[in-house]
Specification:
2 copies of one chain form a homodimer. Chain A has 341 residues and is of the alpha+beta class. Chain A has 12 helices and 10 strands. In chain A, helix 1 packs across helix 4 and helix 5 runs parallel beside helix 12. Chain A binds a DNA duplex (30 and 30 nucleotides) through helix 3.
Chain lengths: 341, 341
Amino acid sequence: MLSERQRMILNAIIDDYIRSAEPVGSRSISKRGDVIFSPATIRNEMADLEEMGLLEQPHTSAGRIPSIKGYRYYVDHLVTLDGVGDQDARKLRTFFAEKMNHWEGVIGHAATILSQLTNYTSIVLGPEMFSTTLKHFQLIPINDVSAVAIIVANTGHVEHRTISIPDGISMDDMGKIVNLLNEKLTGVPFYKVKSVLHSEIAKELSRYVEQCEDILTLLEQTITEEQEPKVFFSGASNMLTQPEFKDVDKAKNILGMLEETQLLMQLFQSNPTGIQVKIGTENTLEAINQCSLITATYSYEGQSLGTIGILGPTRMEYGKVISLLNFLSKDIALMMSRWYK
Amino acid sequence: MLSERQRMILNAIIDDYIRSAEPVGSRSISKRGDVIFSPATIRNEMADLEEMGLLEQPHTSAGRIPSIKGYRYYVDHLVTLDGVGDQDARKLRTFFAEKMNHWEGVIGHAATILSQLTNYTSIVLGPEMFSTTLKHFQLIPINDVSAVAIIVANTGHVEHRTISIPDGISMDDMGKIVNLLNEKLTGVPFYKVKSVLHSEIAKELSRYVEQCEDILTLLEQTITEEQEPKVFFSGASNMLTQPEFKDVDKAKNILGMLEETQLLMQLFQSNPTGIQVKIGTENTLEAINQCSLITATYSYEGQSLGTIGILGPTRMEYGKVISLLNFLSKDIALMMSRWYK
DNA sequence: ATTAGCACTCGACGAAAAGGAGTGCTAACG
DNA sequence: CGTTAGCACTCCTTTTCGTCGAGTGCTAAT
């Protein structure tokens, strides 16, 4: 729909604006060198692009800035994936070379590094247990009345909770229960655990122990309890670097949102595999209507391991960030397979 | 050293300044009602207080603001502990009434609540394993080459890491090793684990398994590896509410510091029991030279469980925060004892 | 179709002026 | 002698106003 020239101009304007954060005028485009037309011509095209809704004018005598629609077109048709710079690649590689001994660590550090490399904020959603299967269950008494329940998933993910031991349960009973659970539940996907508990385990349990009702509900709570969503962020202070958030109130809105786990979860509601870009008001959350969010999901052998997102101003370096996320997602898969040989 | 009147005036000035964040003039003090002298008299006293270094003047024709020394005097001699309001108390109580099933949860939520109640930023340092004893050790194979090692402390604290299984170790061997470790290490304080591993376990181990060297170092790494310091913060966006940080650069400095775990640890270096107040430049970290940090340590039965700190502008509500931390620390102890009956 | 030229718009920047809160000092008062 | 009223002075803050200049849209020439 756009002429070649219009696309070049749009590309040039967005490129410039991403760098400068200031409205781009026809003259400066003309002087860039990659569009060899006079300012007047460019002005005409700019007026057309504005009419199409791809550009906007802050006020009459200012240059143009891209609209949401403009960014969308840019991301869909124009952006060039810069590839990942040598330095960045090295940094990521050395990061994965370090020994990482648990999941939270890997994902957390990945987030930190990403926010450092991009100077944006990274948001990370941990793996959902929902899609994994149970590998091992263990109860470890701490004292007479409480015990630690440990749940290991086949991905190596570990959850633990402290529970209080119901009266009248002996160590012996507990051992039996644990054995029974491991026998019956190992390999069962978490979303089925609840039903298996009721169908298969309830009967067996009643043979050993008396008040099996109580124990059953306790176990059910313990194992299937909605694990707290593991969502966190890194590099929030980078937001303050962006000139669009030099106004403290805007910044506060965004930082405030980052701190509300509930809201943060909403960001990742729709979770298609691969890389997704949400620009400005395309995000349902009002707080980040001036931001863009680029997300990537990671999976290993079909199991979703989590989502990582980069949050920046709408004027963000889409090319760079998309490349980086691509690179990283491949590297994570690589590392996983090496980890599990 | 200060006359009663001077103390009243100092107190009034600091109170006012904490509320308004603006230099306090003699007139406004006189009109407050609690100091029944004329502005002129108050001015004279203010000049004296400034000479003593307790007050400062931003410029000639402005009111006075407290100096670091002034705040220090206020905290040491003047501040009235407001007690905890009914609402706040209820909020804290209902918080602890919720079932909390692991440590990270309790401390983390406590931090969130505190930052909400105070409108400052709270920083939390998790329990140090150093001072706890080992309760249970477990190895759970995930697949042929990797296993999850789980370490439970007597406090109910759980650590886990993924390790790769050395070649030539059978399931059987692993079982033996785990049994041996539990037998020898249960009840041993973590800081002694290393030496016990070498002295007692090395020999025994060599009976069962051949390449005991490898395994020993692996175990040593696994168990004694410096666990990542669990330090995190909550309510950072509250900082942006404070007028002293309406300048984005100052805010960025502080937020940036909060995100660097290393630096954050430094804040808690000196860790006396009880409540400690560090005002402005009394903090060694330059980034928070315009902030005050109030910290409280929590222990249960002599074991330090962690530290929680409230970070705000030097102009912070010392009375309120100190009261709250006091209240909370007692409540945590209470909850602990209820938890462990 | 492209471009040079030109009048026009409108925010940014800076100087100057007005306003006002607060001080320090002096002198008067009980 | 301690306290207070009065007053000149300081200096920050806010407002106003004029200038500047980047950038536009339009028209006419190429």
